[in-house]
Amino acid sequence: MTQINQSGSSAAPKAFSTVKVTAPPRVRIAPSPTGDPHIGTAYMGLFNSVFAKKHGGTFVVRIEDTDQTRYRKMSEDMILKALKWVGIEWQEGPDVGGPYGPYRQSERLPMYREAAEELISKKEAYRCFCSSERLTQVREAQQAKKEQSGYDRHCRDLSESAVKEKLASGAPSTVRLKAPIGGQTVVHDCLRGDVSFENTQLDDMVLLKSDGFPTYHLASVVDDHHMKISHVIRGEEWLSSTPKHVLLYRAFGFEAPQFIHMPLLRNPDKSKISKRKNPTSILYYQRKGVLPETLRNFLGLMGWSMPDEREIFTTAEMVENFTFDRMSLGGPVFDLQKLDWLNGKYLRTLSDDQYLHALKEVTLGDEYLKKVIQLVKERVETLDGFVSYAHFFFGGDLNYVGSPLPPKGVESKKAAVILNELLDRFEALDEWNAKILHDTAEAYCKDSGNKTKDVFMTLRVAVTGTLQSPSLAETCEVIGKEIVRRRMRLAGEYLKKMPVPPPAS
Ligand code: GLU
Q: I need a labelling partner for 228 at 20 to 30 A (CA). Which of 15, 58, 100, 454 fits?
């Protein structure tokens, strides 16, 4: 679908950037608050803020919460807190305000409605009254005929009187863009050059949904324009949305910002970073005891390098040397071993006092220790037995070799399935506490038909490495979701690799 010019082939090691800075730039990240704060948000936050700082510009955080079904206030708070922990600073945002607010899309709804009306009156957009049933039928018919699926433009040419009549009858409607039917839309990406998209591939996209909420495309373009964003620096996964944005800028008659699509972070096997293979939550790295300065340095190495190629640098040094000319588009690998190595380098530069402070921030703080004491007190006779009994509250990954995994009576493949399936349920939880964890595990036993004992013992060994632990659900609550989920995943992988014992003869 896309043609990427010479300089933009993904094999090209270095991008030839066409980024222009003629005035202090205004840049933004626009996270959607739909779960744990993602490491990709910190990645984009770092590069946006470094670029802004380099050129005396402004970095904005905007919350894209228009998908109300997925919106979580808690998640917004977590994102902002996590970014602050990483040490990323913004000058405008929902928490600090600024001249172009509000910075939460759900508080800007009238603007999007007005914008949609404007496009209708310019005949660049139209109302669509098709029901979701009709749209499903159209899609199914297209699939059956192996045609490209998309809206069949049924309402595109409705007469004004027909539209009025339908509106008067109270029929729900969406607003769609009148996209060009033939030809191509060219996106200029500052790292890839011109990328062209066939317009036949671009739908008459919905701009405003029937509930009056904008789609991502409309809200993003309206906000980037009104917030005077000069450079849109975002992940490569949004490149395919950009021709739609270009069409929208044209329809409004707005000047488009410069687009810079950053390479995707990858798992070691080069697939797109995913929580199946790599922890993707910033909170995991915080909990693991990665220092924020390590994380910023590490993210700075993702697709970018210092002029002298040195790997250890501060954010201030990154700002000083920053240029998009030093970007490389070959997918950077988010390699945990390298992150550990780098963190070790940083840790060793700490004074003993700083080290102690860092330890207290992670798992040796009074609050955390008290929670562990509550669970361990009944089980330890002398204080010198505390650390060896409670070791699993303090480590990160466990070594299962020689551990009772899988527990007796549970076949290894089955134990792996149990952990995987339970992990899916744990990952879907909005809250993480003993009661919810216990109920979730019980419900899983019931639904899957597995014995409670098999499920709980497998989980216990995966999370603690031992057959004895305090109440499992409480232990999981205290250890925290980041480490528990990581251990479940690693234990599952370990089990999958175990040889299946030969059948008893
Ligand atoms: N809300 C989008 C996200 O979650 C923003 C994409 C963009 O930067 O335009 O990443």
A: 15
C-beta of residue 40 within 8 angstroms of C-beta of residue 237:
no
Same domain (yes/no): 165, 303: no
490, part of any domain: yes
- Ligand 1: atom nearest CA of 41 is 10
Residue nearest to atom 10 of ligand 1 (CA): 31
In a domain, 20, yes or no: no
CA 30 / ligand 1 centre spacing (Å): 5
Pocket test for ligand 1, best of 26, 27, 32 (most atoms within 8 A of CB): 32
pTM over 0.90: yes
Q: Do residues 114 and 256 share a domain? A: yes
Atom 5 of ligand 1: nearest residue by CA position: 30
Query: What are the φ/ψ torsions at residue 322 (nearest 5 degrees)?
Result: -75, 130
Residue 258 pairs in a beta bridge with 231
Q: In terms of residues, how long is the chain?
A: 505
Query: Of 262, 277, 294, which closes a domain?
Result: 262
Provide the residue range defining the domain that includes 235. Answer: 108-262
Predicted confidence band of residue 11 (pLDDT cuts 50, 70, 90): very low
> Taking CB atoms and a 6 Å cutoff, what residues make up the pocket around ligand 1?
30-32, 64, 220, 234, 238
Q: What is the Cα–Cα distance from 424 to 428, expressed in whole angstroms?
A: 6
Same domain, 248 and 308: no
Q: Which of 192, 227, 262 is the last residue of a domain?
A: 262
**Higher per-residue pLDDT: 202 or 323:** 323
* Spatial contact of 87 and 293, defined as CB atoms under 8 Å apart: yes
Evaluate whether residue 271 is within a structural domain.
yes
Among protein residues, the one with the nearest Cα to ligand 1's atom 3 is 31
Show Cβ contacts of residue 471 under 8 Å, excluding neighbours closer than 6 positions: 375, 434
Q: What is the pLDDT of residue 78?
A: 94
Region label for 334, one of left (φ > 0), alpha (ψ between -120 and 50) or beta (otherwise): beta
In terms of domains, do 183 and 221 share one?
yes
Residue 499 Cα to ligand 1 middle (Å):
44
User: Which pLDDT tens digit goes with each residue over 419-469?
Assistant: 999 999 999 998 999 999 999 999 999 999 999 999 999 999 999 999 989
Q: How far is the CA of 427 from the centre of ligand 1 (A)?
A: 22
In a domain, 12, yes or no: no
Q: Dump pLDDT digits (tens) for 21-75.
A: 999 999 999 999 988 899 999 999 999 999 999 999 999 999 999 876 666 788 8
Kindly give the distance from the C-alpha atom of residue 353 to the centroid of ligand 1, in angstroms, as a whole number.
Answer: 40
- pLDDT-derived band of residue 96, with 50, 70 and 90 as boundaries? very high
Catalytic residues: 275
Does residue 257 sit in the same domain as residue 295? Answer: no
